[in-house]
Amino acid sequence: MRSTVGKTTVTLELGDITGHKADAIVNAANSSLLGGGGVDGAIHRRGGPDILAQCRDIAANQGPLPPGDAVSTNAGKLLARRVLHTVGPIWRGGDEDEPETLVRCYRSCLELARQEGLRTVAFPSISTGAYGYPIDQAAQIATGAVVGFLHEHPASFDRITWVLFEEKTFGVYASALSAISAGKRSSDS
Ligand code: AR6
After folding, report:
1. Which domains are present in the chain?
2. Is 40 one of the annotated active-site residues of the chain?
3. Interval 54-108: pLDDT, tens
4. What is the 121 CA–ligand 1 centroid distance (Å)?
5. Which end of the chain has fewer CB atoms within 10 angstroms, the N or the C?
């Protein structure tokens, strides 16, 4: 699945984000930055202790990372150059700013990547595992947030990829991205 926004290719892959080669991969972390399960656990396991050491320093210096914010570390033994750690919203029914917070996760990561000159970025499906965000809604928000950011910054990135762990999640993101591309075509004509 592939689409183009400005000069950026937007793609979806099925697989494990820890094996993905990009300037940056995104970690769906928690506010402590001290690791956990899911993507977070996999990144720290495969990336080695360097990443956790930097996370500890950041947490010691600035305290817990608020949901929606992002920080960067190096990527230890991973193929990526940097890891962008963001904290998604915990799903509490949708009336506690979960959508706005999820949008901010994607925008914060892309803003940080832009500042660091990182031109290829891979995301997992933030918040849809342990944090329980309904996948259909999360996929619409994620794709809308990224495509919106790319329209604002059409020359900042070469490639944005979602690396999705389950076929079901992949299918939902593919539908969401197709819907945006179709909307763009009809408004262009
Ligand atoms: N590569 C790509 N996607 C993955 C991988 C992987 N290696 N492993 C899991 N996923 P989650 P969250 C998918 O729970 O919901 C952690 O404990 C997974 O199937 O990793 O934001 C943190 O420390 C799901 O589709 O992140 C936090 O406490 C998606 O990634 C909390 O979980 C996100 O699932 C964050 O929860």
Report:
1. 2-188 (3.40.220.10)
2. yes
3. 999 999 999 999 999 999 999 999 999 999 999 999 999 999 999 999 999 999 9
4. 17
5. C
